[in-house]
Amino acid sequence: MHQILSHVAGAGHRFAGRARGYPRTHEAVTGHATPTEDRMPASPDRPRAVALRALKLGDLLVAVPALHALRRALPEHRISLAATGWLAPMVPLLDAVDDFVPLTGLVPFTFDTPPDVAVNLHGAGPPSTTILDALTPRRRIGHAGDGWPGPDWHDDLPERHRWCRMVRAHGIPADPEEVWLAEPAVRSPRPGATLVHPGGRYGAKRWPPERFSAVARALADRGHEVVVTGGQGERALGADVVTRAGLPPTALLADNTDLPELAALVAEAALIVCGDTGIAHLSYAYATPSVVLFGPAPAAVWGPPREGPHRALSHDDLRRGDTFGADPDPALLAVTVDEVLAAVDQVLAASRRERSRRARA
């Protein structure tokens, strides 16, 4: 049996975001049960529902609306999320699951007793369904497949819509716009900063660093406090951007923040400029103004929700579509520094209008 890391759903405080008219608060995630009308205190005696999503940060965050829907639909269940182990610090922010099963990829896992419900948020093929079938759940929630009822899989659906459509087909209401996360327990080390995030897991998703530097330099000249962030192994890339932009060494935070700190940076940031990677999805969750550059993966599938101060940039007619390629996708390379700066002006103006509208309401 895999080690199960406990967390109490409902312990976090909803951080719905500025774009939806909710004020920012700075209450911490307590880590203790806060029973509500539709939630029971965590108990090992409750029936278990397990949701499988053993992928990366952005992949997990596009499944958040479906997880919120499951939480409401299964208030009496103990919901376990089986996901990639390094994502464990995200569990308190999801505010939808009770515990976490850390996985090293898509590998089998077990519980002491069969779960009542198994939810396939990973895919629709045998690699994921076989793992969940081995748990012998009473009920299966997923896409149509061998022994699995549900809707057919369609490749071109927006990811948040895909998983909400799936749970709706099983009688569970779901809203793909419900992307919010709970407020991080830690505070941002740079509240109000503008985050420039030049990294990406694959070269096809990486806009040239000299262009990120040009954007960072222009924003700094406008009075922004620019901070350059990055994931594991991206410190050299971040340092290159900082140096080219003429920023002080203190602007470099790449490969120097854990997930809760990164979430806090995003939640309290003034602006995010990044590629199509996990930090973009954090900006959607916290309604932080963002300009996101897309290459091999279309924004129509992986882009921002309908609401919120976000702008996706890409030249779709040039897309090659090789997500795992080593070189930037032509759709991404065609995006210019001037286009990014114009989009920055647009999202910040939209954010100001929203704040003004709320002030008059």
Automatic annotation (TrEMBL):
<dbReference type="InterPro" id="IPR051199">
    <property type="entry name" value="LPS_LOS_Heptosyltrfase"/>
</dbReference>
<dbReference type="GO" id="GO:0008713">
    <property type="term" value="F:ADP-heptose-lipopolysaccharide heptosyltransferase activity"/>
</dbReference>
<dbReference type="Pfam" id="PF01075">
    <property type="entry name" value="Glyco_transf_9"/>
</dbReference>
<dbReference type="GO" id="GO:0005829">
    <property type="term" value="C:cytosol"/>
</dbReference>
<feature type="region of interest" description="Disordered">
    <location>
        <begin position="23"/>
        <end position="44"/>
    </location>
</feature>
<dbReference type="GO" id="GO:0009244">
    <property type="term" value="P:lipopolysaccharide core region biosynthetic process"/>
</dbReference>
<dbReference type="InterPro" id="IPR002201">
    <property type="entry name" value="Glyco_trans_9"/>
</dbReference>
<protein>
    <submittedName>
        <fullName>Putative glycosyltransferase</fullName>
    </submittedName>
</protein>
<keyword id="KW-0808">Transferase</keyword>
<feature type="compositionally biased region" description="Basic and acidic residues">
    <location>
        <begin position="24"/>
        <end position="44"/>
    </location>
</feature>
<keyword id="KW-0328">Glycosyltransferase</keyword>
